[in-house]
Amino acid sequence: MAHPTQLGFQDAASPVMEELLHFHDHALMIVLLISTLVLYIITAMVSTKLTNKYILDSQEIEIVWTILPAVILVLIALPSLRILYLMDEINDPHLTIKAMGHQWYWSYEYTDYENLGFDSYMVPTQDLAPGQFRLLETDHRMVVPMESPVRVLVSAEDVLHSWAVPSLGVKMDAVPGRLNQAAFIASRPGVFYGQCSEICGANHSFMPIVVEAVPLEHFENWSSLMLEDA
Amino acid sequence: MEMLHLTAGRVAGLLSRRGVAVFSTSGVKMASHGGVTEQTDMSVPLYCDRLDTPLPDRPYKDTLSAADKSLKQKEKGPWNSLSKEEKLALYRIMFNETYAEMKKPTGEWKTVLGGIFFFIGFTGLVVLWQRYYVYPPHPRTLDDEWQAMQVKRMLDMRVNPVEGFSAKWDYEKGQWK
C-alpha cells in the first residue's frame, strides 16, 4: 500500500512491475531534461538584451530540432515496446483465479481443483480493527502462492469494473460478458492492496482488492480451510 | 498598438461605464463600437516605438514647422557645426521616445502581484470558513493513536520493504534509520 503523502510508485512485488519502475525512471529523466532545456530557453528569450530577434531562416537548427526529437522518441519507444511484449509472453500459470466484479464487491473463484468461491467486501470504517487501513481492507483476501505464475481471469457480473493491484503491476478491465486475462508472479510474500479502477456506481471507491502472497504450504492450508467453511 | 498598462486605475475606469449604465435611467450604449471607429491604414509607412525596431518606417514628425525645416537644412551640412540642443531636436523629429524611455519600468508588476496575493488571501479565508463550517468530523483512523497503530502494522507487514516505507526502518534497533 502507499503511505500517506506518497508521490512515487509502491515497491514492486512482481518482475513486470520492476521493469515498469525502471522504464518510468528512464522516461521521467528524459522529460526532466527536456523541461529544463525548455525552461532555460524561455528565460533566455524573455531576458535578452538583443533587439534583433526575428531571424526568419535557418536550415541547420531546423534539421537538428527535427532529428533529435525523433531520436529521443525512439529511445523511449524501444524499452516501452520491450516491456509490452514481455507482458504478453506465453506463460504457464500454476494457478488460475477468476475475479468477478460486482456492484460493489469482488468475488474470487478458484476452480482448478475444487470449487472454491467467496466474496470480498470492503470492511466498513466503523468495523475496522485498530491499526487497519481505512477503505482498503476486505473481509476475505485473494490468497496466492508466492513465486508462482498466477493467471487472473477478470470479468464482471453487471457493469464495468477494473481489477488493479499497483505493486503487482496489474490492471485489467472487468467487462461484463468478456474474459480478460492478466498474469503476475508475486516475487515476495506480503499483502498487496488495490482499488477498483473503473467507475461503477455509488460505491466505486469502496470495493478494494487485497492480494495475499504466501508460501505454498500456507496457501494449501488456507484453501483447505476455505473449502471446509463453504 | 500602444501598450495598455493594466493598472488598478484603468480597470476602475473600464468598469465605471458599466456601473453607470446599471444605475442610469437612460440606457448607455453598451456596444463599444457605437459609431465609426478610427482605423489605422496599414498600407502606408507607420511609426512605432518598439525595442526590436530601431529604425521605424517613417520619421515621427511628418509635418515640420519652419524652425524644424531650417534645422533639417542645417543637418545637410557638417554635423560638427550642430549644437547639442540642435542634435537633440533633430533626434526628437525622427523619434518619439529614446531607448531609455522605452525601457523605463512601468510598475505594472506591482498591480499584478498585488492582485494575485489579494485573491490568494481571499481564497484562504474561504478555505478556512469551509474547514470550520462545512467539513464533517474526521474519521477515527486519522487520530494520532490510530495512525501510530497503523504505522506499526505497516512495518510488521513489511509494506514497501525494498526502497520505500519499511526500508527506512531499522528492524534490529527498533527505530527509523
UniProtKB/TrEMBL annotation, chain A:
GO CC annotation, single: mitochondrial inner membrane
Protein encoded by which gene: COX2
Cofactor dependency: Cu cation
Function, as annotated: Component of the cytochrome c oxidase, the last enzyme in the mitochondrial electron transport chain which drives oxidative phosphorylation. The respiratory chain contains 3 multisubunit complexes succinate dehydrogenase (complex II, CII), ubiquinol-cytochrome c oxidoreductase (cytochrome b-c1 complex, complex III, CIII) and cytochrome c oxidase (complex IV, CIV), that cooperate to transfer electrons derived from NADH and succinate to molecular oxygen, creating an electrochemical gradient over the inner membrane that drives transmembrane transport and the ATP synthase.
Residue ranges of domain Cytochrome oxidase subunit II transmembrane region profile in the record: 1-91
Record note on cofactor: Binds a copper A center.
CDD domains from the UniProt entry: CcO_II_C
Family recorded in the similarity comment: Belongs to the cytochrome c oxidase subunit 2 family.
InterPro entries: CcO_II, CcO_II-like_C, CcO_II_C, Copper_CuA, Cupredoxin, Cyt_c_oxidase_su2, Cyt_c_oxidase_su2_TM_dom, Cyt_c_oxidase_su2_TM_sf
Domain Cytochrome oxidase subunit II copper A binding residue range list: 92-225
BP GO terms, sorted: ATP synthesis coupled electron transport
Protein species of origin: Cyprinus carpio 'wananensis' (glass red common carp)
Chemical reaction(s) catalysed: 4 Fe(II)-[cytochrome c] + O2 + 8 H(+)(in) = 4 Fe(III)-[cytochrome c] + 2 H2O + 4 H(+)(out)
Location in or out of the cell: Mitochondrion inner membrane
Protein name, entry field: Cytochrome c oxidase subunit 2
One example GO MF annotation: copper ion binding
Residue spans crossing the bilayer: 27-51, 63-85
Keywords for the protein's UniProt record, in alphabetical order: Copper, Electron transport, Magnesium, Membrane, Metal-binding, Mitochondrion, Mitochondrion inner membrane, Respiratory chain, Translocase, Transmembrane, Transmembrane helix, Transport
Primary location: mitochondrion
Any Pfam family hit: COX2_TM
Keyword Phosphoprotein included in the entry's annotation: no
Automatic annotation (TrEMBL), chain B:
TM ranges: 112-132
CDD domains: Cyt_c_Oxidase_IV (cd00922)
One GO cellular component term noted in the UniProt record for this chain: respiratory chain complex IV
Principal subcellular localisation of the protein: mitochondrion
Pathway entry: Energy metabolism; oxidative phosphorylation
Keywords of this entry: Membrane, Mitochondrion, Mitochondrion inner membrane, Transmembrane, Transmembrane helix
Subcellular location: Mitochondrion inner membrane
SUPFAM superfamilies: Mitochondrial cytochrome c oxidase subunit IV
Origin superkingdom: Eukaryota
Membrane topology according to the record: Single-pass membrane protein
InterPro entries with a match to the protein in the record: Cyt_c_oxidase_su4, Cyt_c_oxidase_su4_fam, Cyt_c_oxidase_su4_sf
GO BP field: mitochondrial electron transport, cytochrome c to oxygen
Family of the protein in this entry: Belongs to the cytochrome c oxidase IV family.
Protein function: Component of the cytochrome c oxidase, the last enzyme in the mitochondrial electron transport chain which drives oxidative phosphorylation.
Assembly description: Component of the cytochrome c oxidase (complex IV, CIV), a multisubunit enzyme composed of 14 subunits. The complex is composed of a catalytic core of 3 subunits MT-CO1, MT-CO2 and MT-CO3, encoded in the mitochondrial DNA, and 11 supernumerary subunits COX4I, COX5A, COX5B, COX6A, COX6B, COX6C, COX7A, COX7B, COX7C, COX8 and NDUFA4, which are encoded in the nuclear genome.
Protein name: Cytochrome c oxidase subunit 4
Organism: Cyprinus carpio
